[in-house]
């Protein structure tokens, strides 16, 4: 019976299932995936994140950018739209370049299995899956690199997956595919240096870059250092080094090449952004105190979310084992030096401005600092695992127990010193001290445990450490989610039902294949992407800086450095030039723009208006428009005058400045420096201060104001004592605003609210009268030569136009080299109009127009990607054939050796003996040919 049981267990251990689960690492892969997933789900549940409550993880840029772009991507996946271009944000944008940073994750395809109502939940689950894969792929690295097959690889994989970087920055969901793939790339490097196997490295690197080129850039930089480290540790001489160097270079080129179809358009897209103007720092400087940086390795601390120290922490076990890694035997000196150098590289790069600038793509980041800090956690966790591996390979030594103390002691001391006189043994300090003591006690208990079988001790130690680590990670994850914060699930997007109703009705009544819509006020900075209409607003790292400047000059909200431009109700000329046909108001009925906007309908307090003076996507302008000055300082009204005059060839004098009829001041002394420019000083700093300016109405003219901040945060407007608009923000950017429907005999007032935190400052307030008759004359000129669109898609516009005089076909489309314009089947020259918009020179007569888009670099990138893929297949096949030949030669050699030994055995010789030659044979053999003759005659 006992023998049968032994045979059963022997067969079970040798079964395919056991081999798959244990030897192939599937069990540890799954545990390394599911444990972080369950911990994140628990943390979301604790913070009432949907579906566990009425909160959501959408905050900061995830609210404004990532989710709206994700929604557009999902819509394209469902409806078959082009991935090359999108009209749902930024007046039209290179969507391939946009998603290369924000939404190219292969996991985003999962969203098509969720309905519209649960799209945000899809994003939540996708993020959690990415964190799970971070742990799972890290387990692959540990299993291959250190040949370990037990629970320990799960423990350390979870530490990486839930390090402080992950918990502080998880709201940057688009980074996490490449972070998850990072351990696979590192595994590929080790494979090249150990076995000359290059396929995993090539594929994982290419996938990393396609998923997110920005984090992929960090991976590429660190690859150089990881390869240097691995080749030193695994090296076998100079020739071996150059073979591996060839493999890593070749594989890197192929991996990058396979992603060229998206990387090249992304590169050209970035050349149109503000970030291209960054300059390398001239002076060397340091950001943080070194003691503070390493004190931040303490567990149970709030991770940096938008600003703060580098997120290096990855659990107190990693800190506790670091002393063992440095000073314990069983670990090569070169391995220790390599890890120390890599940790130092990341730490110095985070703190030194010049290295930080290089790491961030030769760019100064706007918040979210030290974005490559996860690499420090990767190296630290790997080093701690190496220390643990050394312990369990050769049993725990007494001196190793003492080596568990120095590293955490240093971290605790640095935190004590940082707190100074305010130090208290509580919070993160106390919790970290307790958990560190727990780790040390586990090791000590295993050392003195009575079991003689060390395999049993090792299993007990793995289980005990797993329990303590999971407890620590649970608490850290909850703290991380609390730190990042949440927003309301039910109120996002605002007025969704009403907005979708009016948009649906608008589409039903509209016959044109293309028209633009905008909202009077923004909810996010990408409302058109969020709600799903063809709009103007955009906030993204790929924002076209020339369009941003154009918006600012026209008097709309815009910031070049902030990578944003967005709409707020403006002048009739701006609405017409930008192709806006419909305006949606979620904040009540408008008390202005009655002249140019016609009320259509309402739904759930959302109101729809139609522009009475709409213009097509394209219309003709005078050739003189190309001579518009690129003036950075001109005010928006003068700029709009210049545009209308040059575009029509007439002097319309559309806007004229208006004098102040009456000015009153509350708790402030004001000095007028020039027209519209004021400085002020508060009389009592503890009280609110404001200034009010009144203007007289004019017959046939509307009044528009322009305000900017130097000490005032907001503007409120009234017409005949009725509020037109209140709380117009000028805190960050200047803005043009309407002042009501009043005409002659009306009284307009503008109140400027001084900033609470400023006792003195300056502000700008200019009011101009808008000549309605002159605008209608100019509008009729434009409307008489409009592009009649007959067919429209994401990347192709077809229509026709009647041109009365040679001129410029102006298209309210951001200028890019990717656009090609055909007139009557022939390609025509494109030009940049208004220093930002697409235009084409067009002669007199009737023309059939075709406008086609393909991102700059896409065709070339596609050719490179296909070529790289073919090279990959070619090298993989050749490599496979070579390996097969070597294997066959090895088998033949083994067979020959076996046959030889067998033949010698038959002659009465042992396998290790060589046949002795006779004296004659020896003598003949020494003479050369005679020896051969002797062997021939014997045959």
Q: Concise description?
A:
The protein is an alpha+beta fold and 939 residues long. It contains 31 helices and 31 strands.
Identify the notable features of this structure and list them briefly.
939 residues, alpha+beta, Immunoglobulin-like, 31 helices
Overview of the structural elements:
The chain is an alpha+beta fold. Among the domains are: 511-618, no CATH class; 655-777, Galactose-binding domain-like (Jelly Rolls, Sandwich); 785-858, Immunoglobulin-like (Sandwich); 871-908; 912-939, no CATH class. It is built from 31 helices and 31 strands. The strands form 8 sheets. Strands 13, 15, 16, 18, 21 and 23 form a 6-stranded antiparallel β-sheet that branches. A 5-stranded antiparallel β-sheet has the order 14-17-22-19-20, with no helix packed on it. Strands 24-25-31-27-28 form a 5-stranded antiparallel β-sheet, with no helix packed on it. Helix 3 (26-46) packs across helix 7, helix 7 (152-161) runs parallel beside helix 22 (454-484) and helix 10 runs parallel beside helix 12 (238-258). Residues 908-939 have low confidence and may be disordered.
In whole angstroms, the N-to-C terminal distance is: 60 Å
What does the main sheet amount to? 6 strands, antiparallel
Rg, Å, rounded: 35 Å
* Overall mean pLDDT: 91
Please indicate the percent range of residues in DSSP E strands (runs of 2 or more).
Answer: 15-25%
CATH class of the domain at 655-777: Mainly Beta
Please tally the helical runs, counting DSSP H or I stretches of 4 or more residues. 31
CATH superfamily of the domain at 655-777: Galactose-binding domain-like
CATH architecture of the domain at 655-777: Sandwich
What is the CATH topology classification name of the domain at 655-777?
Jelly Rolls
What quaternary form is this? Answer: single chain
Residues in helices, as a percent range: 40-55%
Which regions have little confidence, pLDDT < 50, spanning 5+ residues?
A: 908-939
Global geometry? globular
């Amino acid at each position: 019976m006992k023998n049968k049981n032994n045979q059963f267990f022997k067969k079970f251990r040798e079964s395919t299932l056991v081999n798959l689960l244990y030897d192939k690492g599937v069990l540890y892969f799954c545990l390394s995936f599911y444990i972080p997933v369950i911990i994140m789900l628990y943390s979301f549940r604790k913070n009432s994140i949907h579906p566990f409550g009425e909160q959501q993880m959408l905050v900061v840029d995830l609210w404004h950018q990532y989710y709206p772009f994700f929604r557009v991507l999902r819509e394209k996946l469902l409806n078959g739209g082009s991935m090359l271009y999108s009209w749902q944000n930024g007046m039209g944008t290179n969507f391939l370049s946009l998603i290369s940073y924000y939404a190219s994750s292969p996991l985003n395809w999962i969203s098509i299995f969720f309905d519209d109502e649960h799209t945000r939940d899809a994003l939540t689950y996708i993020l959690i899956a990415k964190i799970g894969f971070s742990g799972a792929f890290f387990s692959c690295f540990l299993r291959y690199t250190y040949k370990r097959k037990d629970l320990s690889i799960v423990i350390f994989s979870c530490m990486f997956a839930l390090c402080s970087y992950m918990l502080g920055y998880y709201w940057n969901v688009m980074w996490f595919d490449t972070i998850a793939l990072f351990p696979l790339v590192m595994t590929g490097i080790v494979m090249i240096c150990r076995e000359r196997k290059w396929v995993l490295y090539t594929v994982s690197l290419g996938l990393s870059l396609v998923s997110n080129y920005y984090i992929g850039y960090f991976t590429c930089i660190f690859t150089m250092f990881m390869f240097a480290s691995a080749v030193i540790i695994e090296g076998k001489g100079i020739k071996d080094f150059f073979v591996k160097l060839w493999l890593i270079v070749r594989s890197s080129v192929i991996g990058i090449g396979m992603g060229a179809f998206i990387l090249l358009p992304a590169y050209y897209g970035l050349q149109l952004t503000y970030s291209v103007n960054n300059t390398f720092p001239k002076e060397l400087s340091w950001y943080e105190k070194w003691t503070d940086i390493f004190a931040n390795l303490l567990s149970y601390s709030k991770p940096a979310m938008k600003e703060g120290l580098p997120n290096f922490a990855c659990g107190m076990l990693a800190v506790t084992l670091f002393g063992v890694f440095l000073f314990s035997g069983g670990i090569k000196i070169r391995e220790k030096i390599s890890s120390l150098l890599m940790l130092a590289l990341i730490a110095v790069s985070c703190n030194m401005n010049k290295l930080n600038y290089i790491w961030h793509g030769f760019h100064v980041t706007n918040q979210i600092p030290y974005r490559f800090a996860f690499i420090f956690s990767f190296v630290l966790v790997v080093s701690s695992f190496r220390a643990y591996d050394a312990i369990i390979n050769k049993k725990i030594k007494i001196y190793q127990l003492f080596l568990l103390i120095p590293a955490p002691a240093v971290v605790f001391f640095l935190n004590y010193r940082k707190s100074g006189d305010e130090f208290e043994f509580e919070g993160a300090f106390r919790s970290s001290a307790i958990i560190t003591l727990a780790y040390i006690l586990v090791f000590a208990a295993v050392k003195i445990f009575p079991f003689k079988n060390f395999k049993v001790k090792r299993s007990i130690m793995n289980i005990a450490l797993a329990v303590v680590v999971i407890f620590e990670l649970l608490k850290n994850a909850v703290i991380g989610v609390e730190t990042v914060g949440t927003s309301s699930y039910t109120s996002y997007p605002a007025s969704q039902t009403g907005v979708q109703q009016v948009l649906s009705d608008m589409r039903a009544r509209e016959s044109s294949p293309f028209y633009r819509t905008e909202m009077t006020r923004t909810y996010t900075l990408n409302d058109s992407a969020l709600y799903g209409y063809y709009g103007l607003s955009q906030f993204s790292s790929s924002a076209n800086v020339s369009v941003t400047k154009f918006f600012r000059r026209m008097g709309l909200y815009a910031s070049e450095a902030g990578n944003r431009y967005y709409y707020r109700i403006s002048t009739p000329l701006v609405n017409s030039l930008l192709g806006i046909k419909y305006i949606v108001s979620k904040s009540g009925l408008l008390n202005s723009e009655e002249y140019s906007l016609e009320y259509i309908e309402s739904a759930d307090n959302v109101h729809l208006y139609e522009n009475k003076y709409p213009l097509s996507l394209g219309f003709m302008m005078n050739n003189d428009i190309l001579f518009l000055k690129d003036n950075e300082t001109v005010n928006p009204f003068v700029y709009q005058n210049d545009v209308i005059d040059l575009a029509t060839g007439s002097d319309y004098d559309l806007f004229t400045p208006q004098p102040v009829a009456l000015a009153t001041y509350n708790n402030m002394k004001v000095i007028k420096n020039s027209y519209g420019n004021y400085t002020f000083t508060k009389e009592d700093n503890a009280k609110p201060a404001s200034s009010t300016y009144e203007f007289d109405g004019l017959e046939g003219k509307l009044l528009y104001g322009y305000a900017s901040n130097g000490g005032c945060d907001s503007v409120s407007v009234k017409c005949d004592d009725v509020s037109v608009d209140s709380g117009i923000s000028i805190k960050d950017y200047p803005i043009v605003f309407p002042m009501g429907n009043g005409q002659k005999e009306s009284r307009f007032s503008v109140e400027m609210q001084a900033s609470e935190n400023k006792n003195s400052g300056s502000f700008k307030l200019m009011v101009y009268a808008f000549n309605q008759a002159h605008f209608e004359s100019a509008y009729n000129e434009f409307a008489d030569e409009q592009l009649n669109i007959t067919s429209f898609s994401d990347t192709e516009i077809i229509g026709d136009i009647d041109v009365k005089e040679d001129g410029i076909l102006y298209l309210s489309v951001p200028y890019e080299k990717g656009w090609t314009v055909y007139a009557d089947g022939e390609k025509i020259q494109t030009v940049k109009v208004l220093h930002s918009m697409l235009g084409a020179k067009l002669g007199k007569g009737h023309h059939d127009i075709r406008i086609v888009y393909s991102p700059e670099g896409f065709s070339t990138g596609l050719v490179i990607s296909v070529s790289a893929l073919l090279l990959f297949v070619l090298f993989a096949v050749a490599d496979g054939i070579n390996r097969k030949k070597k294997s066959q030669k090895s088998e033949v050699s083994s067979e020959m050796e076996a046959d030889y030994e067998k033949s010698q055995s038959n002659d009465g010789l042992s396998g290790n003996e060589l046949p002795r030659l006779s004296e004659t044979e020896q003598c003949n053999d020494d003479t050369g040919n005679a020896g051969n003759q002797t062997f021939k005659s014997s045959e």
